[in-house]
Amino acid sequence: MLDFSPETEQELLVNYQIKDRESLPQALVKSFEKTDTIPHKRKQPLQEWVDVDSLSRTLASENVHYVSARIWDHPTYITANAIVIYSANN
User: Fold this and answer.
1) What is the pTM of this model?
2) Residue 4 domain-assigned (yes or no)
3) pLDDT score of 16 more than 70
4) DSSP readout, 42-81?
5) Structural domain boundaries, residue 48
6) Residue 28, in any domain of the structure
7) Beta bridge partners of 77
8) How many domains, the chain?
9) Does 5 fall in a domain?
């Protein structure tokens, strides 16, 4: 299990393992579906929060182990194999 505890104490919501042949956008949406955040009901689509193509290329680099981003207000840490989501700041 990956642990990327943010600087502030926030609750770990999901530690999602990306499946073989699952695209990064599919994995991100599925991981958020496991939280109290339902992406398809959000007013802003995933593409407005993160450039998924650029993120995929970055993760494919040999020099990058993980990428952190705030997606739908949640601190999110992404590796080539997993997505870790913490509770949003209130």
Assistant:
1) 0.82
2) no
3) yes
4) SSS-HHHH--HHHHHHHHHSTT-S-EEEEETTEEEEE-SS
5) 12-86
6) yes
7) 68, 84
8) 1
9) no
